[in-house]
Design goal:
By secondary structure, this protein is an all-alpha fold. The protein contains six helices and no strands.
Length: 162
């Protein structure tokens, strides 16, 4: 393939529509940014997409914490059903949350909001998964953020369900 053909293959079509061909639109906007063609940018949609990226990182943090809190609720409300997979999931999601915060230090301003959202979701999911009434789980989180991040969950393999 010639250099011209390779370049043409990587160059998105001119005027790609945000609504009709999102992928081509993203490639075109990136090319315009790199070329310094700021006047030709689709500024409104580009700004919305950048904000969406930030929301996605926030939601990743909330999701990781939601899983940790969900398993904490299940361990506390159904200790006889605890499993090694819960402990593994808690450790993995704690690590994921740590990576999100390490990569996005600006999220530290929203930790309280993320924690509240995570617990809200964990409470609803715990009721669905355990079959217990929603009222069995406190409306406000019974754990501190510190406990969520550090409470040990060493599970004796002889004391868990398979």
């Amino acid at each position: 393939m010639s250099v011209a053909a390779k370049t043409k293959a990587r160059t998105p079509p001119r005027g790609a529509s945000y609504e009709a061909d999102f992928y081509s639109w993203t490639q075109e906007q990136a090319a315009r940014l790199r070329a310094g063609a700021h006047a030709a940018l689709d500024a409104e949609n580009l700004a919305e997409e950048i904000e969406s990226l930030g929301r996605s990182e926030f939601n990743s943090l909330v999701g990781a914490w939601r899983v940790v809190l969900l398993h904490m609720l299940k361990v506390d409300h159904q200790p006889e059903r605890r499993s090694r997979s819960w402990a593994i999931s808690i450790a993995a999601q704690r690590a994921n949350a740590g990576y999100v915060l390490q990569d996005n230090p600006g999220l530290k301003r929203r930790l309280d909001e993320a924690f509240a959202r995570a617990y809200h979701g964990a409470r609803l999911e715990a009721a669905r998964e355990t079959g217990l009434p929603l009222s069995a789980f406190p409306e406000t989180c019974p754990y501190t953020r510190e406990a969520m991040l550090t409470r040990p969950f060493d599970i004796d393999p002889d004391s868990v369900t398979p």
